[in-house]
């Protein structure tokens, strides 16, 4: 048997073993989710194999697969869609064609992809942003940012800030007919991390005149300092995003040093001097009973690993560890979390922290939700779950923006 045949056979066997992964009872469209999971896990396995034999890095292979899904900007009868740049940051603009007497609302959107891949060009995000522009009769801006591991933190944050500050200038808002008092910022997954970090920065920066009226964080990742939350324990092998892959990707955001993911898997990656930050991620106080269940709190082991990265203690990378003074100035916030998601507790704890300092929070928890659902609402999976999440998010925006 040739090498190629052997590979194909192995992939086929792996697909078969993944397709029979049992799913939680309340998951709808079970077969579609099983297929999605098998495709994603097989792709991921292939990427790991290629990385191990030295052909290409894991994230390069996944990026390649995802870029097959990119779509050009297509205007339609309601919306003019164009790709342009804000300073040097690529953005996709959705401008409603309808005549409007008054200036419009606006939404800035950051896509997910573990900081390592993805773009506003993906079909699902293009569909979501067009939908938002249509439903709200709003100007929508999809923002790209430099990706890890080629570019590491804070490149992504800086790109986000650059694009946002450019958009929030009077002359730009006027150019696109935007009402400066009705602008929201949103993002999913790592895009939610960025949206949260950029919002903290903008709302607290006296030099930025126009602030956000709202922020919407869709299954965001908000911390990496405790990797043994109940959500990590329960979803270690979850659909599409496992704890292992989550750790692998988020590590690349900080460093290529393999010591970080290794230590992170054991929850021993934080330095001694980070002890004061653990109260901000203490799930035994910040998670409601319903999510704490019978899990027993164990303090992460500090000072064990040789990794010492200031970025691991930086709230621009981990918005959940920002202090109360920074959080107090945040606008009304929408947080959506999914039950079967390693990032679930990040969002729930952020909701608690914001509520504790008096920020208005609407928290929707999707009991049958899986991570990344918005990315699967377009072809080829068409998960109804993605459409449901889209509608929850867009209707909250419509009511509050
Ligand atoms: C977390 O909270 C528990 C109380 O629920 C407390 O015993 C523990 O010391 C706290 N840990 C940290 C690191 O703040």
Summarize the SSE layout with pairings:
Layout: H1 3-19, H2 30-52, H3 58-67, E1 79-86, E2 89-96, E3 104-110, H4 123-136, E4 139-143, H5 155-167, H6 170-175, E5 178-188, H7 190-203, E6 214-218, H8 230-234, H9 243-254, H10 259-265, H11 283-286, H12 289-292, H13 324-327, E7 333-340, H14 344-356, E8 361-370, H15 384-400
Helix pairs in contact: 1-2, 2-3, 4-15, 5-7, 9-10
The structure holds 2-acetamido-2-deoxy-beta-D-glucopyranose (NAG).
Description:
- With 401 residues, the chain is an alpha/beta fold.
- The protein folds into two domains: 1-20 and 27-56, no CATH class; 79-223 and 312-400, 3-Layer(aba) Sandwich (Rossmann fold), CATH 3.40.50.
- The chain contains 15 helices and eight strands.
- The protein has helices at 3-19, 30-52, 58-67, 123-136, 155-167, 170-175, 190-203, 230-234, 243-254, 259-265, 283-286, 289-292, 324-327, 344-356, 384-400, and strands at residues 79-86, 89-96, 104-110, 139-143, 178-188, 214-218, 333-340, 361-370.
- It has an eight-stranded mixed sheet with strand order 1-2-4-3-5-6-7-8, with helices on both faces.
- α4 packs parallel to α15 (384-400).
- The longest helix has 23 residues, at 30-52.
- The termini are far apart.
- Residues 278-279, 282, 284-285, 297, 299 line the site of 2-acetamido-2-deoxy-beta-D-glucopyranose (NAG).
């Amino acid at each position: 048997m040739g090498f190629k045949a052997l590979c194909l056979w192995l992939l086929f066997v792996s697909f078969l073993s993944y397709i029979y992964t049992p799913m939680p009872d309340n998951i709808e469209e079970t077969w579609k989710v099983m297929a999605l999971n098998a495709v994603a896990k097989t792709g991921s396995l292939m990427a790991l194999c290629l990385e191990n034999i030295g052909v290409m890095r894991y994230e390069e292979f996944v990026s390649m697969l995802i870029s097959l899904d990119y779509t050009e900007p297509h205007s339609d009868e309601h919306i003019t869609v164009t790709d342009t740049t804000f300073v040097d940051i690529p953005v996709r603009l959705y401008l409603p064609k309808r005549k409007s007497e008054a200036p419009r609302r606006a939404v800035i959107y950051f896509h997910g992809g573990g900081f390592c891949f993805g773009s506003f060009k993906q079909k699902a995000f293009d569909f979501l942003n067009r939908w938002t522009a249509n439903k709200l009769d709003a100007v929508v801006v999809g923002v790209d940012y430099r990706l890890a591991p080629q570019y590491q933190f804070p490149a992504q944050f800086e790109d986000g800030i650059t694009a946002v500050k450019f958009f929030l200038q009077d002359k730009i808002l006027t150019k696109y007919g935007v009402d400066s008092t009705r602008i929201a910022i949103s993002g999913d997954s790592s895009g939610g991390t960025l949206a949260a970090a950029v919002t903290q920065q903008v709302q607290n920066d006296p030099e930025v005149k126009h602030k956000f009226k709202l922020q919407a964080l869709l299954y965001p990742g908000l911390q990496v300092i405790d990797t043994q939350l109940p959500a990590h324990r329960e979803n270690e092998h979850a659909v599409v995003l496992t704890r292992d892959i989550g750790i692998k990707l988020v590590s690349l955001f900080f460093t290529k040093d393999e010591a970080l993911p290794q230590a992170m898997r054991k929850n021993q990656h934080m330095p001694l001097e980070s002890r004061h930050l653990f109260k901000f991620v203490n799930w035994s106080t910040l998670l409601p009973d319903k999510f704490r269940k019978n899990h027993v709190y164990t303090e992460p082991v500090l000072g064990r690993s040789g990794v010492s990265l200031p970025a691991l203690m930086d709230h621009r990378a981990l918005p959940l560890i920002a202090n109360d003074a920074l959080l107090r100035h945040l606008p009304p916030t929408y947080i959506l979390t999914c039950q079967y998601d390693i990032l679930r507790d990040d969002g729930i704890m952020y909701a608690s922290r914001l509520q504790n300092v008096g920020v208005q929070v609407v928290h929707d928890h999707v009991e049958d939700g899986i991570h990344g659902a918005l990315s699967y609402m377009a072809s080829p999976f068409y998960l109804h779950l993605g459409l449901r999440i889209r509608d929850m998010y867009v209707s909250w925006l419509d009511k509050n923006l």
